[in-house]
Predict the structure.
Amino acid sequence: AKIETLPAAEAVKLHGRDDVVLVDIRDPRELEREGAVPGAFHCTRGMLEFWIDPESPYHKPVFAKDKRFVFFCAGGMRSALAAATAQEMGLKP
């Protein structure tokens, strides 16, 4: 109830837009096995808080952009948790 969910077909329509960042939450083994989405930013679920936080030494500039962030994973659970975390940290998931 705290986050917006999108059907895969809707998320695909957002791919390539300048105001949207697709964030792949899958782990590296999944990417090797299943492939990556071209143009998506990869961030494992375990690093998300560190990479979002501008005060963290691990902060990634992509998360400082004023854009909509669409998180995805293999089954939906990790991306739901990631979206909730991102929302709590001030991003627009």
Summary: The chain has a mean pLDDT of 91. The longest strand covers residues 20-24.
